[in-house]
Specification:
single chain; 322 residues; alpha+beta; Ribulose 1,5 Bisphosphate Carboxylase/Oxygenase; Rossmann fold; 6-stranded antiparallel β-sheet; 3-stranded antiparallel β-sheet; 23% helix
Length: 322
């Protein structure tokens, strides 16, 4: 008669003693579903949770094809209200529920209501064959601004461009005569914007400015000065980085602040939607979704995994054949 396997981590039964539980034998163990666990499963049904994202409705065919437990986990769903999260799969929840849980956790930790709220996005940077999306830096104008306007330096020589830059709120406007002052650290600014005709004259400042050096990929070089000044003075900066570990090849991440805890759920949702769409613009939609996972947390609170599918941009449909 079959007896329960002595290895508690493997829910199987063996006709004879299993090699993983006892000494080696020449008998091959027959692995079957654990009788004890099957009986317990029939007696105690899963509870109905208040969080609908924990429940996973599957058909009978999918239930038969699915293994008894996920890899490196105890079961697919917990059978109690109090359990260790690390023993069960981490299912994403709607963003509204994540924000509510985050506010409750902040109250228990006696956090101030104006602490920063940050999101972490996991990226799929794979493209054709061995190509992938390179690390990038960008800025986006959030619907609800969270930072003070930054100091912008504009390189321009045309009188019309100089007047336009001053009207938009640029702190420093000038031509190549500002290069020597920048090398001597006489000017203080946060970002630098330039017109395309002066990019060759600014190559001397490449080592000095480093990430502040104007580039077309960062939307800091162009003819629309009002747009660039408004984007970098009131916009939120984000940066995408990639992993160097071989197991994380083809993946990247973005960590960026999107608001404060005292903002409403609608304001935080609109900022997150705008940020995710701005990040997804760096990869063509034909290669699949760029953002694969999203976490939201505040200072002193745990991270909450939210559903990113409602915020991903959709590929435009051709109405020619309709």
């Amino acid at each position: 008669m079959a007896a329960p396997c002595r290895n508690a981590r493997a829910l199987v039964t063996c006709v004879l003693r299993c090699s993983s539980c006892h000494v080696r034998t020449h008998w091959k163990p027959v692995r079957q579903p654990c009788i004890f666990s099957m009986q317990q499963r029939m007696k105690t049904s899963y509870r109905t949770y208040s969080t609908p994202s924990i429940q996973q409705v599957l058909t009978d065919a999918e239930e038969e094809q699915r293994p008894l437990k996920p890899p490196n986990r105890v079961a697919w769903h917990p059978t109690d209200d109090v359990y260790h999260i690390r023993y069960y799969p981490w299912y994403p929840s709607p963003l509204e529920e994540c924000l509510q849980q985050m506010r409750k956790a902040a109250e228990l930790e006696f956090r101030q209501p104006d602490i920063w709220v940050q999101i972490s996005l996991e990226l799929d940077t794979k493209l054709q064959k061995k190509k992938k999306v390179e690390p990038f830096i960008g800025s986006v104008h959030l619907p609800h601004t969270i930072t003070e306007p930054k100091k912008i330096l504009v390189f321009a020589t045309d009188p019309d461009d100089i007047e336009e830059a001053k009207k938009c709120g640029a702190h420093i406007v000038g031509g190549p005569e500002l290069i020597q002052e920048i090398l001597q650290d006489k000017l203080e600014f946060d970002y630098c914007v330039s017109v395309p005709s002066l990019t060759q004259d600014l190559q001397v400042l490449k080592k000095k400015l480093q990430k502040k050096f104007p580039k077309k990929k960062r939307n800091t070089v162009g003819h629309d000065i009002s747009y660039m000044v408004d984007l970098w003075s009131r916009g939120q900066k984000y940066a995408a980085l990639t992993y160097n570990h071989p197991k994380q090849e083809g993946k990247g991440h973005v960590n960026v602040i999107i608001g404060r805890l005292d903002m409403t759920d609608e304001q935080l949702t609109e900022n997150i939607d705008c940020m995710i769409k701005a990040v997804c613009s760096h990869k063509p939609l034909s290669f699949g979704p760029f953002v694969t996972r999203g976490l939201v947390h505040a200072k002193g609170t745990p991270s909450y995994k939210f559903q990113v599918e409602p915020f991903l941009p959709e590929e435009p449909k051709d109405d020619m054949f309709e």
